[in-house]
Amino acid sequence: MIKNYYKMAFVMSAIFAGSGVWANNGVYIEQVGSTNTVTITQIGANNRVGNSGLNQQSSITGSTNTLTTSQTGDNNIIDYTVVGSTNTISKTVIGDTNQITFICGDGTTACTSVTSTMNITGDLNTVTSTIKGSGITNTLNITGDSNTVTQSILTSNSTSTITILGDSNTLTSLMTGASGGAGHTLVASVTGTSNTHSITQSGTINTTVNVTTNGNSNNVTVTTGN
After folding, report:
1. pTM of the predicted protein model
2. Is residue 223 part of a domain?
3. Nearest CA to 78 among 38, 132, 109?
4. pLDDT tens, 165-210?
């Protein structure tokens, strides 16, 4: 099911495997706004972008948004809610049984001028992203299996760049507080297996955290604030 209101530019290219289109490669988009471009490419079976059974249905609200979603493999799920305008969001998934939940803004805060890119190569990876502010650039790259990333940017203008190479790693990033004009910054690079990282940045002063780990079974906890 595809719903659109006002002026909408919509492009969808899907290669379906097997019979039953909506059972195997299901796409649901409900868009309210103008001058949006949505491109979806799915190759494989059981891929879906949004469904009422997984968190919230995919929805784009605003104008001048460009979203590109590409999935290759089986049982991949991308579910996103975008609020605001002038957003560029691109998600690429290659592998099996990966799951992405992406929320940009909410009922009280617009998601404006946000550029978010996400690339996943591997299996059984889970990513949950919440981007609430405006003017944010967010980048995530995962190569490996069974990695879990949970990132919440709840303060304006903060940004993060996360790179994971390996398997069974867990990274949690939380940014809160009324930080200064530049916002908080996180740069994290994880190489190895079974590493656990927890980064919390809060307070009214901008903070910058750079974390680089190599090896296995490292446990890193960083907390900043005032």
Report:
1. 0.77
2. no
3. 38
4. 999 999 999 998 877 677 889 999 999 999 999 999 998 888 999 9
For residue range 1-52, list pLDDT tens digits in order: 444 333 333 334 333 333 333 346 666 666 666 666 777 777 766 776 665 4
Contact, 63 vs 40, CB < 8 A? no
Residue 107 lies in a domain: yes
State the alpha helices, DSSP H only, in 21-138. 21-24
Q: Is residue 13 part of a domain?
A: yes
Integer angstrom CA distances of residue 102 from 16, 85, 99, 176: 24, 16, 10, 18
Instruction: Give the whole-angstrom CA distance, residue 224 versus residue 226.
Output: 7
Quick one: which H or E segment has residue 23? helix 21-24
Query: CB burial class (10 A; 0-12, 13-18, 19+) of residue 115?
Result: middle
Quote the number of domains for the chain.
1
**Does residue 215 belong to any structural domain of this protein?**
no
Domain containing 55: what range?
Answer: 2-146
Looking at residue 9, its amino acid is: A
2-7 contacts at long range (C-beta below 8 A, 24 or more positions apart): 2/27, 2/28, 2/29, 2/30, 3/29, 3/30, 3/31, 4/29, 4/30, 4/31, 5/31, 5/32, 5/33, 6/32, 6/33, 6/34, 7/34, 7/35
